[in-house]
Amino acid sequence: MTTTVAAYAAPAAKAPLERTTIERREVGEFDVLIDIKYAGICHSDIHQAREGWGEAIFPMVPGHEIAGVVEAVGSGVTKFVVGDKVGVGCMVDSCRECENCRAGLEQYCQKGNVQTYNGIGKDGLPTYGGYAQKIVVDEAFTLRIPDGIALDEAAPLLCAGITTYSPLKHWNAGPGKKVAVVGLGGLGHMGVKLAHALGAEVTVLSQSLRKREDGLKLGADHYYATSDEATFKELAGTFDLILSTVSAPLNLDAYLSLLKTDGAFVNVGAPEEPVALNLFSVIAGRKTLAGSGIGGIRETQEMLDFCAEHGLGAEIELIRADQINEAYERVLASDVRYRFVIDTATI
Question: Is 10 in a helix, a strand, or coil?
């Protein structure tokens, strides 16, 4: 039988989130019932709840940074037992058959993965995310949270952590590499921590020097203000990899000028507006302009284990559920250091 749980949902586009109830499906043979303890607030939640990325499904229960404890398992579950600490990220299923899924790249499922919220499950029903008391997820899309990472600090790793870890690994960030992270927000602060732990020389490129002290504490070696035109002259041709975590449109030509020959500028932030580009910015220097999504399930587990090994968690501000709407406005004002996390016991 289904389970009725309390949740916070946006009833319509741009409407304030409000407390409601939703139905979670019956625990199937390979399902895990998770008692959600914490849910991170990602800028993606705001984009989707306000239809910034296009038409969405309402009512919407956002939340794809989920950390909790296994409450029940289906008869066929072999990976988890009751009491395990687990997480759920941005997807809860995929076709599992295409070339990408077979390669562990479920995030790029050729038939489209099933998003944790604002998606349609294989049962044809809308998916609801982590701003809720409980969730039912197939064990194949459930992650184990290792000991050594507090659950509240682990929640943002399920999006902010893997979204930055995946491109850093793919573009070989490590010793001898110069990596710049654009923006020191929810994604950016994890990008700095992870790039530093991987052994790269890390530079933060931020609009101002306001968070310089924080950036250096998080592991950055250098910190520059992009509002200063001298920054682009001084750093021209410096970086092997630039990871852009911001959701505002940038002057791509200016940032591409900061790359070495064969360097890569990788977008993980997704602006709502189109951006312009002079193709000579990539032709001169054989540079790469790329994007990266989250990571597959295998890589996400690798990231969690890496964070546990290196003592990494997100920098968080814990809030009550009735502060969600206020938190959204503060995210838009860049007034959070560095990730809001909802204590779901307050829903």
Answer: strand
